[in-house]
Design brief:
This protein is α+β, with helices and mostly antiparallel strands. It contains 13 helices and 48 strands. The chain is globular.
């Protein structure tokens, strides 16, 4: 009988009760060797340090699915002085007297506690413990339900098919072992525990001032990410794990889906109805029933007799087609099913421990599963999309990739299934499913994304996934899974979207109206209203549930829903510019209020129903949207405008960073406010992003401090933007006492020729203006709307309030 081995150490640091010897493996590392373990701290960027703990003489393999090799091997100027490793932003400090390792900012403020509690290891299982001061709040962990603040909660990370999940369900579809602490002595910081095994986090649940995290097995490998602000942490985390690529513009449009549209005739009728009802639409999604017997990479030509023709005709209407392709392959020997035959011939599938191919039951019946841990298998998988790409399918939907398996107690693969690793800088080896489970869905999307890029190298690949791991945003957008048509799930839609955005996934959608069950007309309409200001807007519902297309509840509800879809399309230039910024910086599209206003920390500001779109528009939703009572909305200190009327809002008294504004509910109006100093870029209404807007580009100016904005555009679908075929133009403006005095368009950069030939400037707030450009007066029939020719070389327009 072998007793579990245990050892104790300072949190995220070295083993206690022994003397430290610092013998760096590299001159710029802090290394602690004691009691049979080696702790190595390596600075890979000024604000990021990596910590690895392994037995002396047997270091863990330096490999990761989450952090690319060139990032892991990065270095930054450091100072190593005794027991202190310093960069310009972060210090790792080991105290041999207390045997504690802790992290400080450059000013000496503690970032990651004092490490007063031990590391505990029990066989392969490990637990890391840190101090969690009472003032700290915890954000992140991806799609977890419940409040945005994870303080006082505990969570498990094990990708799970969670049909019918609720606000207390855990685990869920994704495993993103990354959290952010805010409100600490050194400001915000983040931690990524890079473990694909079953992991857990406890944020003061078992012990109020103790943070715990651990895994069932595997190496101890984690990253400490400095702030001091919440955006700083997100920027550094996404630089570490990768940023979501710029999506095609059509992915920002309204999208219609159902499990399933059962025939070509039904899809064509749907597209015709969407256009007849003038609901702007960019995408129709096809769920599994377009396939032959639910077999991926097939088409049922009985019900879809002219699949390619249908996709082509939809494209002619400005509607793209996204088709589902689950990661299982039907086990169909001798039936002429190409993916199975070629996969078996190339030994592409996952095996059991006895060497036989693993077979599990999913939608096609018995199915086999590609070995996504091998680069060669991912390339084979990617090549299978060639027929769909040839037919014109614009995007791929990877579902069921936790992986979900029917008729098993765990709803997934047995943990002793064997995966062969041959990828990246991993040493070739085998691993059990217990190690690979949480990363399997991400590797599925990686294979899909790389395949689409290889098949159409000058087109942006769009992939949607249900399951993923840290860094999965490099390959796919995501949605929150099989939600329900309840008010509680409308609230979850907001909180999960915000949490995923903070966890690297800028592109998030929810099933508008709820996947299972049937929403009331009011709930469906409210969901449309909120989703118009969220990153991805997809209406999706379950087979057997009531229909959920925009018109199902009659013309009055349709009119409200259409109005919000139309507003989204008018805001498309602003949304697209936010998308481009996110691809460069990692900033989420939808954000909690404290992301841009850290002083707004009151309970009224932490409601999950209030959020901002890029820090410019603030959606002030009711904390209990199912009720019809007035509520107090949090507005950060400063001047605000009502988005719908353009008028200034009476600024509520400051409560130390924010004020409360009483809002009376109106089922047709979602309260939305614009920060003073914002310039929103808008366009004339179109029915699809493929349609060229008719009229001027519109700059909506909301006078205030730090006034400005930006124009960004490219062709919306190709990779030409990466070669500089894009345009950028900075907007600055000067306001005095809340009235606009000048607006400057800087000279435009980039070679892309835009669709507009004129620019309309609309000044919001009270009063009228006179305006001049180049010494010439501008006419303004409405008093505050001025139209000028396009200004690629830049200009300044002066305004005189009347």
């Amino acid at each position: 009988m072998t007793l579990p081995q245990k050892w104790y150490a300072g949190v995220f640091g070295a083993v206690a009760l022994c003397t430290m010897t610092a013998t760096p493996a590299h001159a710029d590392d802090l290394v602690v060797d004691r009691d049979g373990t080696t702790v190595t701290v390596h600075a890979i960027a000024p604000g990021v340090m990596r910590v690895r703990i392994a037995p002396v003489g047997a270091p863990a393999q330096d490999a990761s699915w989450a952090v690319p090799a060139d990032v892991r091997h990065g270095a930054t100027p450091v100072t190593l002085a005794g027991n202190v490793l310093s960069t310009a932003l972060l210090r790792a400090v080991y105290d041999p007297a207390t045997a504690r390792l802790h992290f400080e900012d450059a000013a000496g403020h503690t970032v990651l506690g004092e490490a007063a509690h031990p590391i505990e290891r029990d066989g392969a299982r490990f637990t890391l413990r840190a101090d969690l001061p009472l003032g700290e709040h915890i954000l992140g962990l991806g799609d977890k339900t419940g409040p945005l603040d994870r303080r006082g909660q505990s969570y498990a990370l094990w990708n799970s098919d969670s049909f019918g999940f609720g606000s207390g369900t855990d685990p869920l579809y994704k495993s993103i072992p990354f959290f952010i602490s805010t409100g600490g002595r050194g400001g915000a910081y983040g931690v990524l525990l890079d473990s694909t095994w079953r992991t857990w986090f406890d944020f003061g649940h078992r012990a109020q001032t103790t943070l715990e995290m651990g895994a069932e097995a595997g190496p101890i490998d984690y990253y400490v990410i400095a702030g001091p602000t919440l955006p700083d942490v997100v920027h550094r985390y996404t630089a570490l794990t990768g940023r979501a690529p710029l999506p095609p513009r059509w992915a920002l449009g309204y999208q219609q889906s159902r499990w399933s549209y059962m025939s070509e005739a039904e899809v064509r009728a749907l597209a015709t109805r969407l256009r007849a009802e003038h609901v702007p639409t960019d995408v129709i999604w096809l769920d599994i029933d377009y396939q032959d017997r639910n077999r991926p990479f097939t088409v049922d030509h009985q019900t879809f007799p002219d699949f390619a023709g249908m996709v082509h005709d939809l494209d002619g209407l400005g509607i793209k087609t996204v088709a589902i392709t689950d990661l299982h392959v039907a086990s169909a020997p001798g039936q002429g099913y190409g993916p199975y035959d070629s996969g078996m011939a190339g030994d592409q599938f996952v095996h059991r421990a006895d060497g036989s191919v693993y077979v599990g039951t999913v939608w096609p019946g018995p199915a086999v599963f590609p070995e996504f841990t091998r680069a060669s298998t991912r390339a084979w998988w990617g090549s299978l999309f060639a027929p769909l790409v040839k037919d014109g399918v614009a995007g791929i939907w990877n579902d069921m990739n936790e992986p979900a398996i029917f008729d098993t107690p765990t709803k997934t693969m047995p943990e002793d299934v064997v995966h062969r690793i041959a990828s990246d800088d991993f040493a070739p080896r085998t691993a059990t499913h217990a190690e690979i489970h949480n990363v399997f869905g991400m590797l599925n999307t990686r294979a899909t994304y790389d395949g689409l890029r290889a098949l159409a190298p000058d087109e942006r690949a769009f992939v949607m996934t249900r399951a993923s791991y840290a860094g999965g945003q490099r390959y796919a957008a995501t949605w929150t899974g099989d939600n329900s048509a309840t008010w509680d799930h409308l609230k979850l839609a907001i909180s999960q979207t915000l949490s995923l955005g903070l966890s690297g996934f800028a592109w998030v959608g929810t099933d508008v109206g709820g996947f299972t069950g049937g929403p009331t007309p009011e709930l469906m309409t409210r969901w449309f209203e909120y989703s118009a200001f969220l990153p991805i807007m997809r209406d999706h519902s379950q087979k057997g549930a009531p229909r959920a297309e925009p018109w199902v509840d009659g013309p009055e509800q349709l009119a409200i829903r259409r109005r919000y879809v139309e507003e989204r399309y008018r805001l498309m230039p602003t949304l697209y510019a936010l998308a481009e910024t996110s691809a460069r910086t990692g900033d989420p599209i939808a954000r909690p209020v404290i992301y841009d206003w850290p002083a707004a920390v009151g309970e009224d500001c932490r409601t999950e129903m209030s959020f901002t779109l890029g820090g410019r528009l603030l959606v002030a939703g009711a904390p209990r949207p199912e009720q019809h009572n007035a509520w107090q909305a949090c507005l950060p200190t400063g001047q605000w405008y009502d988005y719908w009327t353009g008028t200034t809002v009476k600024t509520p008294a400051s409560l130390g960073g924010y004020g409360l504004l009483t809002i009376t509910p109106d089922p047709a109006v979602l309260p939305v406010f614009v920060r003073a100093g914002t310039v929103l870029v808008r366009q004339p209404l179109v029915q699809s992003t493929a349609q060229r807007p008719d009229g001027p580009l519109e700059l909506d100016v909301y006078p205030g401090p730090d006034c400005g904005g930006a124009i960004y555009d490219d062709d919306g679908h190709s990779m030409a933007f990466a070669r500089g075929v894009a345009l950028r133009q900075t907007i600055t403006c000067i306001s005095v006492d809340g009235r606009l005095r000048s607006l400057t368009l800087a000279p435009r950069t980039g070679s892309y020729a835009p669709w507009w030939h004129q620019i309309a400037i609309v000044v919001h707030g009270e009063g009228q203006y006179r305006a001049q450009i180049d010494g010439h007066a501008l006419a303004a029939p409405a008093g505050a709307r001025f139209v000028v020719p396009d200004q690629p070389k830049g200009t300044t327009i002066t305004f005189t309030p009347e």
